[in-house]
Specification:
The protein starts with 24 loop residues before the first helix and ends with a helix. Helices cover 70% and strands 0% of the residues. The longest helix has 31 residues. It has 300 residues and is mainly α. The protein has one domain. Helix 3 crosses helix 4, helix 7 runs antiparallel to helix 11 and helix 9 crosses helix 10. GO terms for molecular function: ABC-type transporter activity. This is Transport permease protein. Belongs to the ABC-2 integral membrane protein family.
């Protein structure tokens, strides 16, 4: 069949495409209206029959913060005080700035990895770009992230927050690192989960480790003090470590006397490395997703 002639061998041969495969993430940009519909659907379904609704975006991180603050800040002495001058000043800000970012990543990756299986009814009935489902999960997590970041900013203002333009810009880059990493891994595990449901359990374990494998609850200096510089370098290869540290740099550090140092080479080395790793994860996730999406409907 040809696009410009009824005869075989015409001048404009139609491009042959494998059924069920689109243009990848480019299709998401072309179908922004569908993306909005999916995001609206996810929010409505999630809070259907819920009394608090979107207020859960405040309640869940609030309870998590209180538990960690009491256990670590007070009982284990990570909060700076007269009895513990070596602790972290404004530990509440330090803790919450890490929690809001790691919660965004955890929710985004967890929902994205289940998005294809969770929308199996749509996928088996009609064709639409399958990347829309994991990407919509990331967007929903971003919507839940907004009220948490508002609370963080308000709390920072009460403690004398005065960030520089550089610090705010670094925080935006840190958020993009977490978003890109969640998107790439969401594409990978979302596709694998169609074929092997064990992927959901693996993601749950990874997310459990993620909170402790990045400086959300403790400082990076504790890693260097306990394990040495080599271990710290390995630790900094984790993009989430860098992402969380950007939020500490932008939100927590300006509320202190700013005498606390960043990890060695943080801005010139580790920030670009983390962004490159996150972008590579997106490329890898898109490649794997496109190779596997052709049999999604059959497998589901």
């Amino acid at each position: 069949m040809t696009a410009g002639s009824d005869e075989p061998g015409g001048p404009a041969q139609a491009e042959l495409r494998v059924p069920g495969r689109g243009a990848g993430l480019r299709d998401v940009a072309r179908h922004r209206f569908l993306l909005k519909l999916l995001v609206d659907k996810e929010i409505k379904v999630r809070y259907r029959g819920s009394v608090l609704g979107l207020l859960w975006s405040y309640v869940k991180p609030g309870v998590q913060f209180i538990v960690f603050y009491i256990a670590l800040g007070i009982f284990l002495g990570l909060e700076q005080s007269d009895r513990n001058p070596d602790g972290l000043p404004n530990y509440a800000i330090y803790l919450f700035s890490g929690i809001v970012l790691i919660n965004f990543f955890s929710e985004a990756l967890g929902n994205a990895s289940r998005s294809i299986v969770g929308n199996s009814g749509l996928i088996k009935k009609i064709y639409l770009p399958r990347e829309l489902f994991p990407v919509s999960a990331i967007w929903v997590s971003g919507i839940h992230f907004l009220p948490q970041i508002v609370i963080l900013v308000v709390a920072c203002l009460f403690t004398g927050w005065s960030p520089s333009i550089l610090q705010l810009a670094v925080a935006i880059v840190g958020f993009l690192i977490a978003a890109f990493l969640a998107t790439g891994l969401g594409l990978i595990f979302g596709a694998i989960n169609v074929y092997y449901r064990d992927a959901e359990n693996l993601v749950d374990m990874l997310l459990m480790v993620a909170t402790w494998a990045s400086p959300v609850l403790y400082s990076w200096e504790m890693v260097r003090r306990q394990l040495g510089d080599t271990a710290l370098s390995i630790y900094m290869l984790n993009p989430l470590t860098v992402s969380v540290e950007t939020f500490h740099y932008a939100f927590w550090l300006p509320t202190t006397d700013q005498q606390f140092a960043l990890p060695p080479g943080f801005l010139p080395v580790w920030l670009p490395v983390a962004l490159a790793v996150a972008l590579f994860t997106v490329i890898l996730g898109q490649h794997l997703f496109r190779r596997l999406e052709g049999r999604f409907a059959q497998e589901l």
